[in-house]
Amino acid sequence: MLFRTSPEKFWNLIAQRYAASPIADVAAYQKKIEKIKSYLSAEDHVLDIGCGTGTQCDDLANNVAQVTGIDISSKLLAIAETRKLERQIKNVEFVQSTVFDERFDSASFNLVMAFYVLHFCEDIDEVFGRIYDILKPGGLLILETVCLGENNIITGKLIRAAGKLGFLPLINLLSNQQIELALEQTGFSVIEKIKFSESNAEYTMIAKKPGN
Questions:
Q1: pLDDT by residue (tens digit) across 107-158?
Q2: Per-residue pLDDT tens for 41-82?
Q3: What is 7-208's CATH number?
Q4: How many angstroms separate the Cα of 79 from the Cα of each of 34, 91, 135, 166?
Q5: C-alpha to C-alpha distance for 68 and 112, rounded to whole angstroms
Q6: Number of C-alpha atoms within 13 angstroms, CB side, residue 206?
Q7: Residues 212, 203: Cα–Cα separation, whole Å
Q8: CA–CA distance from 164 to each of 11, 103, 124, 134, 154 (Å)?
Q9: Separation of alpha carbons 210 and 191, rounded Å
Q10: Which of 49, 67, 114, 149 lies at a 20 to 30 A Cα distance from 140?
C-alpha cells in the first residue's frame, strides 16, 4: 500500500496501535499541559491540528469555551469520540479535516496547537500563513515537531526516501532554525522555547500573533 498520496490510509492502518501506545514521559506531558493552561482563559476557542485520539483536547476542555480537534484519520477520530464520551466532555468537537478547511474563519481562534504534525506538511510557510489568518490578534500558536533535518541525518534521509516511495507519508526534514525563521517571516514572535523532557529532542515553541 502506498501512502504518499493518501496519508490518511497510513493513520487509519495504525490507529489502534497508536491509540494503545502510552505517553512516553507522563511528567513532561503534564508539565506541557499545565504550561498551555497558563495561557488560556474561560472564553477561549482552541484548535488542535492533527489531534489524533484527542487526549490534549480533552485535557484542556475544562479551561476554555470550546476545543476543535481536526485530523485526517477517521479511525483516530472515532477513538477520540469514544474517549470524549467516556470522560463526559461536552465542549470538544472532532472534525475530519485540515487547517485549510474553509469553515474556519479568519480570526476565529485564540490558540492553535500543532503537535508532531508539521513534518508531514510539504510547505510549512503555507501552513503558518493559514494559522496566522485564523488566529485572533494576540493569539498563540503552540507547536512541537520532529526535526530530522537537525539530527539523525542518515535516519532522516532514509525516512524521507521511504516517504517519497510511498511507504510512509511524506516527511519534511525540518530544523528548529527553519521553523523559527518561517514563524518570524509569517509575522509571529516566538515568545517561549521549552524542552519539557531531557529524553525528548524536540522543543515546544510558543509563538504569538501581534495584537492585544
A1: 999 999 999 999 888 899 999 999 999 999 999 999 998 876 655 554 444 4
A2: 999 999 999 999 999 999 999 999 999 999 999 999 999 999
A3: 3.40.50.150
A4: 24, 17, 27, 26
A5: 10
A6: 19
A7: 26
A8: 17, 31, 18, 31, 15
A9: 11
A10: 149
What spatial distance separates the first Cα and last Cα of the chain, rounded to whole Å? 48
Q: Per the confidence metrics, is the pTM higher than 0.70?
A: yes
The torsion angles phi and psi of 48, rounded to 5 degrees, stand at: -110, 110
Rounded Cα gap, residues 118 and 83, in angstroms: 25
- The owner of cell 477520530 is 77
Residue 124 to residue 118: CA distance in whole angstroms: 7
Task: Count CB atoms within 10 A of the CB of residue 191.
Answer: 11
- Residue 154, pLDDT score: 43
pLDDT at residue 89, rounded to an integer? 97
Candidates 70, 74, 76, 32; CA nearest to 49 is: 70
> Strand, coil or helix: what is 90?
coil
**Angle of CA points 193, 182, 112, to nearest 5°:** 60
